[in-house]
Each structure stands twice: as structure tokens, then as C-alpha cells.
Amino acid sequence: MFTEDYIQQSLFISSRGPSRGGLVVLLFSLLSITSSLYGTLLWALDSPGYIFQATNTTVAADQRQRNENPPYIIQLALDPTELRSTGEKLPQIIGAELFNPGLNYSLTGKVDNSHGTPEVVAPTRQGLGIGARICSCILFNEGSAVWNCTFNNAEAQSIIEGVTGLPEVHWNDATDEDMDSRYIRPNRVDNIWVSLGTGGGSAFMNQVFTVTKETRRHTFFQSTFKATMVTNPDIPFGQYEVADFVNRTWSTSTDQDSTKEANPLMGRIIYDIMGAQDQGASYQFGANTADNNNKSALQKNWGYYTPQVNNASMYSLISITTTKITLIRSETLSEAPEPFEKCERSNFQNEAFGGKVTQTDCTSSKAPDVKHGFFGQVDTAAVMITRGLGAARSNISAQSLDEKSLTWLGDHSGAIEALLTARAYSVSIDPSLVELSVDKLMVAMSSLQLFLTCLALVLAAVIWIGLMYSADGHWSSTLLGNLIHTTSEMNEANPGYVKKAPEITLLPMGRKKVLAVDGGTLTISNTGLTSMQPFATFDPFPGDPKGHMEVDAYSLSYGDQNTGRQRLLSSSEPNYMYRR
User: Fold this and answer.
1) Is 90 exceeded by the pLDDT of residue 326?
2) What backbone phi and psi angles, to 5 degrees, belong to 475?
3) Does the keyword Transmembrane apply (predicted)?
């Protein structure tokens, strides 16, 4: 049975049922099929290898694989020699640790903001008291504020120690008039902007934060750029270095369309910085402006500071900072946030980080003259801090701010904004609004491979059918079919598959064994044109089992002159007989 084809083996297994012989044939058939197809499967599946196929979905679709506590702060240390690879890996860097290990994903930077159109709220108060707090040199003009002043070095230390780019929240008019506005401050526990945002050192900070008052929530994107140069008091800044430093940061510090060379304001800033250095004083120039149909607020500041301790100058610092805050989403929530804890001594707000409320500002707030209680909730959803932009302690412009890193920031600021916004939406706003690209492992099979594999199956079927109908019956049938046909089916010309396999055994007859079909022994004789004497007797060997049969062999074929071949005589009169 091992030499039969799969159809005959299947018929044998079905006719035998749950037997040892059927089980052996089944296992052999499976082994034979696997062995014969191993080469094909190896070529079709394993040889081409595997590829990752990207499919777009949403963060909410893979919610079961989400990391329950993803970090909300991302740090990026730029290496000027690897800027290209860093730019290519930005989706993976900004989207890191949103999911548990095992999911190959990346953020696309696309969010659905169709139902969260930013809503600009008109100011309820006009006049002084809103904007910069340098009252001695401030000028207000229809919502904008500009300051330009030279001041004593004794006031420089407090300005340097202030954290750059703190968003200020004005909750209502009553507490605002009491100077009880609040700032969204970095968490001292895990946010390095607490130290990097002060003093010297060039860095770039982006963050997405939300402000929720009752059921109304507004989402903002903020970018803050800070570039500094430092020198000793006895080594003044060179005018060329100051001019180069201001010139290279001008496009980053302003959104004006005028060119660097044609803008007279840049020359005035350079002149005033050098003048303050000659006077032994500190200097500051800056402005607050609105942009983008009042959806964006910009603050630009150029400063020269020489802090003192006991009237002794410690160092001189040139600091150029730019902060832009843009309203990107406004929505109404189903429920207003609840106070995280009780606070009876002051007005307070909930403070959340990465979408999770962890504290309030109750203990750090002053006792107010205007009692309001719970303001609302602020959430620092996602923060990205980019450092390594230059040497922190250099008075050379090219060293303090690397030109390649500065160009890289300008080229990738849009991608950083989109990706960081997507991360913030996934942890704090709504993960179903964030598009995600998931790479799934797929077999790398080409169209040609599929065609050739299917062609092999089709050709096998065609050859099998052709052999069945075109070839002579005894050559197209199986060995078992020919054997059973010869011994039992004498009235049919073409042997076929044996649907019910007989019992074929080897019976011992003396010193040898003979083949038996359903208990009847079978012997073979040479065919010829003349009859032969019987070669079996009733008792050829002593001790043979009873029931054996004697076979007289006669001619089993004849010559056909028309066809030129010999044919079996199974359809003619029987030329042999059995005797028991």
C-alpha cells in the first residue's frame, strides 16, 4: 500500500476504518506528502523570507497592548554626526513606550481634529496689568507689549533664575486683578527643564498642555527655543560674535518676512547689547504679540545679563529666547474635573502629567484676598526636550550654537509638532483620534512565486486526468488495482481503484510463504502459447495447511494482428480453472 497513490491510500484507510494497518498507512501518507512538498514549501515560503507590511489604524484599536504608565517626557540629545538618522527615527523616538513590547508601531503624526475646532475667547479686560511685568520700560499697543531697557546688574540674577517659557493661566477677572494667576510649571521630580530652562545652555522645548475650566477644555502646543553665550567678566564679547549669534538665531526668534540684512531692528539689538556691555549694565529687549487670528501668542526676548554677588560680577550671559503657544483644540467634556484634594487655605488647581492627576498647587499658593476655591485642571500631556545644540560655556557663536543642529531643528520642527501632538492626544485627549502605523510580519511571496506554485498544482491535475483517460488501463491504474483485477474481476477491461481493499497476507507453506488474497493463495506462472502442466498438487509438502488450491496455468494472452500487440484474455472464455 505504501507504493499506491494518495487516492488509493485514502480508499484503503476508509475501508479499513480504525485499524492498525489504516493508522500505519495514514502516518506514512502524511510523511510522504510532507517530504514531497518540503522542497516546494521551502522555496515558496522560507527562501524569500519575511517582510513587515504597514497598516494604518488608531491607538484605541490596540488598547489592550497599551502601556498603562507611559512617560510623558521625551529627551533627545542631538549628535551633529547622526542628525540624518535621528530625523528618520523621530516617529519611533517620540512614540516610544506607548505600548507594551511586542507591537511594532510608529506614530504617523495625524490626528482627527474635526470635532475640536479651536475657539478664541475675547479678552474681558483691557489696559495695563496684562503682559510683561517690566513696568519701567514697557509699552502696550492694542494687545501687544514691547520692552527695551538697560538696567542695573543687581536685577539680572532674578531674571536669569527664572524658567523660560512658563505658560500663564488667567482663570477669571477677579483673581487676576488680585494678581492670582497661575503658571504651568515643570515638575521638579522628573522634568529637566527646571534647570535647563534657566541660566546658560542652548535647548529646545516642546510641550502639549490642556487647560480645563468646568466642562470646557482647551489644548495648546508650545515651543520654546533658548540659545546662550557665556563669557568671563574680564573677557568681553566680541562684536563679531554677538552679531553672528543674533544673525543666526533671527529666523528662529522672529516670524517677520523681512530678510536678516534688511531688518534694522537686528542692528539695533546688536548695538544696544554692545552698549550695555560698555556701560557695565544689563540689557533686555523683547515683545509679546498675537498671531494666527489670535490663536497664537508669541514672546521674543534678547537679553544681556551680568549677575553680581556682593557687587562683583560673576559672568556675562547673552540669552535669546522665543516662545510660541498655539491653541489647537477646544471641546466640551461630559463631566467637569473634580478637585484632587481639599484645599481650604487658598485657591488651587489640579495638576496632571501625561493625562494623570497627581497633585494640586495648594501648598505653594498664597492666601488670596479674593476667594474662589477650585479653579480647574491643567495637564502637561507630553513634553519633548532637545539638548546638545552647542557648548554651554563658550563665548564663540559657532560653538555655543551648532549650525547643523540649528538647521536640523528648523527642518524638523513641523514633524516634531505633529508627532508630539499625536502622543499627547493618545494619553490625554482621545486615543481614537490618533492614527497609528502598525507593522505586521508577512510572508514575502511575489506574484511569480504564487503563479509557479499554482501552475505546479494545475499541471499535476492535468497529467493525472490525462493518464487516467489516455493511457492503457493497466498502465494508468495502480499496482493494487491491477492485482485485484487479475484475480477477481475478469469481466472488466479497465482496472480501477479498489474501494474495498481485500485481505492480502503471506501464508506459510512449508519452507516458503505464498501470497493469499482473502484467504486464497496465488501463484504465478509463465505465459505462453501452449498450456503448461499444473505445478501445484494437493499435497506438495508435508504439513501444508488445508484449503490450498491447485492452479493450472494456460495461455493468458493472444496476439492481435490488427493492433500489433498482445491483449489479456480476461474478457474471453476462461482458459484456466481453480480446484480446491
Assistant:
1) yes
2) -95, -25
3) yes
Please state the φ and ψ torsions of residue 73, each to the nearest 5 degrees.
Answer: -115, 130
Question: What is the number of alpha carbons within 13 Å of residue 206 lying toward its C-beta?
Answer: 22
For residues 315 and 303, what is the distance between their CA atoms, to the nearest angstrom?
Answer: 14
pLDDT at 282 over 60: yes
At residue 325's C-alpha, the angle toward residues 320 and 329, to 5°, is 165
Distance CA(317)–CA(335), nearest Å, equals 48
Give the span between the Cα atoms of 105 and 114, in whole angstroms. 24
pLDDT band for position 114 (cuts 50, 70, 90) = confident
The distance of Cα 178 from the centroid of its chain, to the nearest Å, equals 49
Cβ–Cβ contacts within 10 Å for residue 46, how many?
10
Taking the CA atoms of the chain, what radius of gyration do you get in angstroms? 46
Q: By C-alpha distance, which of 269, 331, 357 is closest to 116? A: 331
What is the domain partition of the chain in residue ranges?
A: 6-48+445-470, 109-118+132-208+221-254+264-326+379-440
pLDDT at 146: 83
For 557, the 3-state DSSP assignment is strand
Q: Tell me the DSSP string of 542-554.
A: TTPPTT--EEE--
Q: Which residues contact 194 (CB under 8 A, 6 or more apart)?
A: 163, 186, 187, 188
Within 340-413, strands assigned E span 348-353, 356-360, 374-387
What average pLDDT does the structure give for the chain?
A: 81
Are 273 and 304 in contact by the 8 Å Cβ rule? The answer is yes
Provide φ and ψ at 29, rounded to 5°.
Answer: -65, -45
Higher pLDDT, 223 or 180: 223
Q: Which of 321, 328, 296, 327 is nearest to 143 (CA)?
A: 296
Pairing between strand 168-169 and 565-568? unpaired
At residue 176's C-alpha, the angle toward residues 172 and 180, to 5°, is 110
Give the Cα separation of 387 and 49 in Å (integer). 40
Helix (H) or strand (E) holding 309: strand 308-309
In SS3 terms, 2-59 reads as: CCCCHHHHHHHHHHHCCCHHHHHHHHHHHHHHHHHHHHHHHHHHHCCCEEEEEEEEEH
Identify which of 52, 71, 4 has the alpha carbon closest to the alpha carbon of residue 355. 71
Name 368's Cβ contacts closer than 8 Å, sequence gap at least 6.
175, 178, 180, 346, 347
CA distances from 351 to 210, 366, 367 (A): 10, 17, 19
Cβ-proximal residues to 462 (8 Å cutoff; 6+ apart), any chain: none
Q: Which residues contact 320 (CB under 8 A, 6 or more apart)?
A: 226, 227, 228, 245, 246, 249, 253, 301, 302, 303
Cα 123–Cα 124–Cα 125 angle in degrees, nearest 5: 95
On the CB side of 250, how many CA atoms lie within 13 Å of its CA? 22
- 323 vs 326: CA distance, rounded Å: 10
